[in-house]
Amino acid sequence: MALNYDEIVGKFDKYIFNTYTRQPIAIKKACGAVVTDVNGKEYIDCVAGIAVNNVGHCHPAVVEAIKRQSEQLIHVYNLYYTEQQALLAEGLVNLTEMDRIFFCNSGAEAVEGALKLARKATGKKVFIATEHAFHGRTRGALSVTHKEKYRKPFEPLAPAVFVPYNDAGAIREAITNDTAGVILEPVQGEAGVIIPDDGYLGEIREICDETGTLMILDEVQTGFGRTGKWFAREHSGIKPDIMTLAKAMGGGFPMGAKLAREDVAANFGRGDHASTFGGNALSCAVALSNIEVIKKEKLVAKASDLGAYLMEELKALDKDYVKEVRGKGLMVGMELSIKCEDIVAKARECGVLLNCTSDSVLRFVPPLMISKEQLDTVVGVINEI
Ligand SMILES: Cc1ncc(COP(=O)(O)O)c(C=O)c1O
Q1: Last residue of one domain, picked from the residues 238, 267, 296
Q2: For 216-269, what is each residue's pLDDT tens digit?
Q3: Less Cβ around it within 10 Å: N or C end of the chain?
């Protein structure tokens, strides 16, 4: 027996922690770039679970991998070896050009592990993070997340110093003998799709090399083709010492990982870190099929082309309330001079799901397989509004 919208919301209101601001629709199913609510209304999805469904919702290859693997082996814990984890480790180490990987289940958990690793590797305690950064809500990840509203109730947090984003000199000045590492997003997502200058990551790499500071790149939101490269670090040609992944890693299936250079990873010995579900056979098989889809359907190049197209179309709207359209690949932000909440609501009524971040930035992170026609519809709806 299917519940109707009111019945579903009634149960949410009664039983679920009140930590999310939800839009007034209940989603029943999704396919490709389209989601359908319980009343049968369809929406073009420009949110994709916040940069998760890069291959599109319920991709047949991902669904097939879930079915196939779940009939054979779902979970056994890391007391044992599995073929699926071995293959995914090899695939991701090769794709990222890092040396070793540790599997977990979410972005915050990946960041948490990255910070622990940097502390153990350096014996130092302080992290340098960037203003407006978002790295997750667990305690370690929160300590390098900037927003006062998220941090304040949970202080004291682990020691962190915040410097302006896109200012490598500020990082140089902030480094002391107590600095374990610098953590940052290659494109700031939650902050409103903030794109740094071309040389920024390269400069940080140099500063970290000169001072013996670890560079941690949080690619949780930018990974798996989102910015028009497999990983956003490729735009600048640098390699971090530690890298975090999650979101699009499992094609919608929960997965996360941190990767590191060999000599950094060597600092984690037996018992230093663990995760019950990390790298279970099912999630690894799903992630492998997800990677195959991204390759086969050339979604990385598609993100680059479609992102450029979307930005051009959004810029052409030429409305006086649009301050700036910016982006990399299909991670696009449209900064408005007004709050964007009402636009999100109106777009939803017109069958388009949009996300608003930092109050006044419309963030477009649709599935990378979205069509030009669907993007045209989205831009048309925004134009109407
Ligand atoms: C850059 C970045 N790091 C970490 C996280 C936290 O990921 P999760 O929500 O999977 O814990 C996010 C989530 O938005 C993110 O954008």
Answers
A1: 296
A2: 999 999 999 999 999 999 999 999 999 999 999 999 999 999 999 999 999 999
A3: N
Instruction: Answer yes or no: do 37 and 97 share one domain.
Output: no
254: cis peptide before it, omega within 30°? no
Same domain, 206 and 352: no
Cα 385 to ligand 1 centre (Å) = 30
* Domain boundary residue, one of 296, 329, 354: 296
Residue 17 is a catalytic residue = no
CA of 235 to the centre of ligand 1 (A): 21
The active-site residue, picked from 102, 103, 127, 218, is: 218
Q: Strand order of the sheet with strand 214-218? A: 100-104, 256-260, 242-245, 214-218, 179-184, 126-130, 160-163
CATH code of 372's domain = 3.90.1150.10
Q: Contact 144/180 with Cβ under 8 angstroms?
A: no
Q: Do 191 and 269 have their domain in common?
A: yes
**Judgement on whether residues 307 and 274 belong to the same structural domain of the protein:** no
Report how far ligand 1's centroid is from the alpha carbon of 134 (Å): 7
Tell me the pLDDT tens digit for each residue of 272-322.
Answer: 999 999 999 999 999 999 999 999 999 999 999 999 999 999 999 978 889
Total of domains in the chain: 2
d(CA 326, CA 239) in angstroms, rounded, equals 24
Is-catalytic flag, 218? yes
Instruction: State the Cα–Cα distance between residues 156 and 89, nearest whole angstrom.
Output: 36
The token pair at 349 is 């009524």
Q: Is 134 a catalytic residue?
A: yes
Compute the distance from residue 279 Cα to the ligand 1 centre, in Å: 18
pTM of the model: 0.98
C-beta of 134 in contact with ligand 1 (< 6 A): yes
Note whether 25 and 348 are within 8 A (CB): yes
User: Which atom of ligand 1 is least distant from the CA of 247?
Assistant: 10
